[in-house]
Amino acid sequence: xxxxxxxxxxxxxxxxxxxxxxxxxxxxxxxxxxxxxxxxxxxxxxxxxxxxxxxxxxxxxxxxxxxxxxxxxxxxxxxxxxxxxxxxxxxxxxxxxxxxxxxxxxxxxxxxxxxxxxxxxxxxxxxxxxxxxxxxxxxxxxxxxxxxxxxxxxxxxxxxxxxxxxxxxxxxxxxxxxxxxxxxxxxxxxxxxxxxxxxxxxxxxxxxxxxxxxxxxxxxxxxxxxxx
Length: 228
Ligand SMILES: Nc1ncnc2c1ncn2[C@@H]1O[C@H](COP(=O)(O)OP(=O)(O)OP(=O)(O)O)[C@@H](O)[C@H]1O
Ligand SMILES: [Mg+2]
What we know:
This protein has a 5-stranded parallel β-sheet, with helices on both faces. The protein has 10 helices and 5 strands, in the order αβαβαααβααβααβα. Helix 5 (about 85-110) packs antiparallel against helix 6 and helix 8 crosses helix 9. The model is unreliable at about 220-228 (pLDDT under 50). It is α/β, with parallel strands linked by helices.
């Protein structure tokens, strides 16, 4: 496992060299169902409409896909297929690759990377799924070279509301206990995030996200993209 991280770390070093400096990052984080994807897509589109080149960066962890694979193979879920820690490791590697890919693409095209999830999300996932201190330390080290976001937005939604949204979405299912633990873990892990109330309708939340991002844009985030 350690060898895998060392390899990824080396790959990342080479990729950063190829890309020059790192991309400017705006990250949206929050519990499952808080509206990250909805708002990150809208924010990237709104930035582009305002003449600021931005790129939406998805950050899938593979849980839904592995869950489907597991059921095809007659297992109840992904944990039954690869184990709890195995799943956390796969998720951490996939998210690492997705973040690296998005940052390099944003850097090469001179765009701001609007990230749907970012490094704190993996730490929260490890805590909420009981991955243990050793895995958390390993992931912290592997994710440490990623650039600090210019703005990190925590979409704050009560776990009960997030649960209802996920049920209504109908793609997957999350336990309310997991959402509760995850919500508490975000508050613990995040130190410098802007908290945005995610409970309103999508337009209201989008306006609040924009209000949180715009001061950074005005102070040169767009001009300095790639120098954060
Ligand atoms: N402000 C909102 N009000 C009502 N429904 C919303 C709002 N924002 C998003 N939704 C809906 O709630 C569901 C969850 O939103 P979304 O997929 O954006 O959340 P997410 O944080 O990306 O979730 P996940 O972590 O599972 O990827 C979607 O069906 C979406 O259409
Ligand atoms: Mg999403």
